[in-house]
Amino acid sequence: MRSLSNSHLYLKTIFSLRNSFMASSFTQTLKPDLPPQDLDDLLCSHPQKQRQDESSSLTGSNSNDSKLLLGSPTGYLSGESRIERAWAHWTKLGRPKLIVAPMVDNSELPFRLLCRKYGADAAYTPMLHSRIFTENEKYRNMEFTTCQEDRPLFVQFCANDPDVLLEAARRVEPYCDYVDLNLGCPQRIARRGNYGAFLMDNLPLVKAIVEKLASNLQVPVSCKIRIFPNLQDTINYARMLEDAGCSLLAVHGRTRDEKDGKKFRANWSAISAVKNAVRIPVLANGNIRHMEDVNNCLQETGVEGVLSAETLLENPALFAGFRTAEWIEGQEENTRDGNLDQADLLVDYLKLCEKYPVPWRMIRSHVHKLLGDWFKIHPHIREDFNAQSKLTFEFLYNMVERLRELQVKMPLYIKDSHVPAISSNA
Ligand SMILES: Cc1cc2nc3c(=O)[nH]c(=O)nc-3n(C[C@H](O)[C@H](O)[C@H](O)COP(=O)(O)O)c2cc1C
């Protein structure tokens, strides 16, 4: 049932995407987008931009679980049952630990599949705008694509109206494992639109949104939050979300004002305090740059899993144990060439884009992130790339060949003790 629904969605999506803005084997005309200058504008900068078969998503294989899971929306379950149900669902998904964070224009289907191939256990979609999603079919088809291998999948929305979000969520619930509410976007566009981290100023509205979703959807609701400057406020916030029906909480350990991830270290001890204060599964986000960070974070915070964003863009093989040169400094004697580099990953990604078309602006963004260091050594190749108003896969594969001919040697490394986890499925 699920696979039929998925392939139906995917085929429908492909059909309507072929005629506009999407990367396909055909040449597409697009203005070149330059490398992101201002992350503040990039993040969440997307304003213009069938009900689940109950048994397929919510019935656990364990017969003890099924009493909890059958039935459906969580609304009328007691608090205790909701917590048990949250854990049963998490367990049914295989308790994913290594998760691709939501990233506007960057955690789209081919990138998610690439990360899954290299060790990611689950992934979030980019944030989708709930109102536009309900109103605009083209937006839906362009911005949300998925396929059978793309699970577990968390579909993220921004919203400030419970009814609108419910309508948007109902459209995606057959194709995902959580509907996620973005409560973390700190950017100007979110302030203007009154969503993301700006809902931290209106907690009764947040509560109403989560309650509405949790009591009407078949699929569980998750939330991604930022921390408050005051720890007790953060704890109260997390408990409120849990009481409202949130089944999974991802905590980005930075405040709304700490926008620059490179400048501000994520506060793992605040994440640990949240983990101790609630009973639903919790995920940590912030400062996950290689597998040592993953292990330290899991140990320090006690959370179920971690999300990574910025580092994954440069190194989608992070969760398989690979690291860029930046993260082996001082440990060179314990590391070796992993026989994989960012150009290999780009080629993998491009092949996935040929199979699952996405807007060219997303491909451009990934090229800059993956080959940023290579372009520093050979800026003329970057200039040539930026000068292309029409991108083609042929040009992109050719560009990789040119870099190879220039003998750029920039491998990803692995620690001697680490066995890379690469899946052949994705
Ligand atoms: C390009 C980009 C786009 C992002 N878009 C979203 C988004 O759509 N939704 C969201 O909740 N967070 C978004 N974020 C924030 C990340 O999910 C994550 O919370 C943040 O980058 C901290 O994780 P990191 O330290 O691993 O980068 C985005 C981050 C980046 C770099």
Automatic annotation (TrEMBL):
| Reactions that this protein is recorded to catalyse | 5,6-dihydrouridine(17) in tRNA + NADP(+) = uridine(17) in tRNA + NADPH + H(+); 5,6-dihydrouridine(17) in tRNA + NAD(+) = uridine(17) in tRNA + NADH + H(+); 5,6-dihydrouridine(16) in tRNA + NADP(+) = uridine(16) in tRNA + NADPH + H(+); 5,6-dihydrouridine(16) in tRNA + NAD(+) = uridine(16) in tRNA + NADH + H(+)
Query: Which cofactors does the annotated protein need, by name?
Result: FMN
Keyword Nuclease tagged:
no
- What general EC class does the enzyme of this chain belong to? oxidoreductase
Q: Where is this chain compositionally biased, Low complexity type?
A: 55-66
Q: What is its EC number?
A: 1.3.1.88
Which residue intervals make up region (Disordered)? 37-67
**What molecular function does GO assign, one term?**
flavin adenine dinucleotide binding
Q: Is Oxidoreductase tagged as a keyword?
A: yes
Q: Which family does it belong to?
A: Belongs to the Dus family. Dus1 subfamily.
**The protein, known as:** tRNA-dihydrouridine(16/17) synthase [NAD(P)(+)]
In its UniProt entry, the species of origin is given as Cucumis melo (Muskmelon)
* Biological classification of the source: Eukaryota, Viridiplantae, Streptophyta, Embryophyta, Tracheophyta
Gene name for this UniProt entry:
LOC103501114
